[in-house]
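Good morning N.,

You mentioned wanting to compare the apo and holo forms, so I went ahead and generated the holo version with S-adenosylmethionine. This is what I fed in:
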Amino acid sequence: MIYSELMPQQFDIRLDTLTGASAGSPEGAIVLSTGAPGDKTFYLETFGCQMNVHDSEKVAGVLLGRGYRQVETIDAAKLVLYNTCSIREKAAQKIFSRLGSYRKYPGEEKIIGVLGCVAQQEGEEIFERSPWVRLVCGSASYSKLPDLIAELEAGNRRVMGLDTDTDATFETEITRRDNPFRAYLTIIEGCDKACSYCVVPFTRGPERSRASASVLKEVRRLADAGYSEIQLLGQTVNSYRDPSPKRKTFAELLVAVAAIPGIRRVRFTTSHPRDFGRDIVEAIDSVPELCDHVHLPVQSGSTRILRAMLRTYTREEYLEKIAMIREARRPISVTSDIIVGFPGETEEDVEETLSLLDAAQYDGVFAFQYSPRPNTSARNMPDAIPEEEKGRRLARVMDRQREIQRARNEALVGETFEVLVDGASRRPGQWSGRCSNNRILNFTSPQEKLLGEYVPVRVASASPNCLVGEHVV
Ligand code: SAM
Ligand code: SF4
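and this is what came out, ligand included:
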């Protein structure tokens, strides 16, 4: 998973100084007006991971390219789109409760559309459960979106795109980017791994990488537009395989992106441990523009559970990757995802996960209670763990990680980091930004215009989830 300030609903618990302020989806009842909104207006709400956030940026681009205007409220919109997440059951339920709000809606003024992973997973059932929905487009079928919109505009009552046997990637002429400093760029879509708990291979289809030249062309365009930080995205970003004759490896692509004039920071997420090689660490070590942070989800510290999860590595192999990262010449932050309560997980397995936390010394962890998902092989495994017990295990993992983070963050007091300033408090002189290692640093400065600047900040105090500092002027 992808790690982002824009996906609070994805995290059962967030214990991480490495994520930012939350800007989650607006909650609450949907108010529908009977007034006629402008014909070419759209409202788009996004759930889930960073890839969904970026898909929404591209969906918005497709619509803007067709003359639509984005509006801030459902009330003001003709076209209402939900870009959905189905990674855990709660996330999927949320969408149906949103759609339920339209049940009593009498008119035809609004076109309701469901995009993303729930659309891919539920398909036609969405029309049955929520007959007022007119567009269903799965996350593996976005390349069809312009045609689907055209069909709706031509008056078709219901349109649907759900192919997964695609080798197309979702590329758009226009992408409406939300963050003024950091641009997201998907370099690989879908997933060919088959983790036994995960819906992603079903909802996002097979792996498709973008040609390196097309990635580099877009980064050049972004640099010209003023973006200095690029985040390369993929469910398993480091499984990237250049489909063009250039055959650039992922590490070579990182280096090439970092070499583009104007680019000061390059991030990438999420890395799969199996495909994480020394060449990536060497690239980070030798290219300062490559950020010193790797998100390398382990999921469990027990080899027995990792086997049942079909993660394709053992505890020992994973810890060898961590040792390789720790041997780098510059310190590299490492973060992880953990699932607790996988079927058959014993007390001993939980202890192994806790001891892995000690061994790995993560700088941040996203921990989740296992949620059985449709189509996945884990769904029918015996020895389900009761929800209450999953909750207890989650708390134990987070307690242990909290102490690790406290110590790791306190060790940074007195150090100075370069921060890209991306937030200003209402209180004058209070700012926040992100270090190359992806930690958030809240700081004070006598200067008045800092947004978008790279500035040195000395860490004055630290807690498990927060660094506080002052601008070194
Ligand atoms: N591709 C990434 C990887 O392999 O690490 C993860 C992508 S997934 C969108 C983000 C995270 O959600 C996973 O790392 C896992 O911890 C969690 N996750 C996925 N399926 C889950 C499930 N069925 N129940 C609980 N957590 C789940
Ligand atoms: Fe899901 Fe595993 Fe693919 Fe990650 S690697 S998206 S967890 S199947």
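The first helix runs from residue 50 to 65.

Happy to go through it together on a call whenever suits you.

Best,
F.
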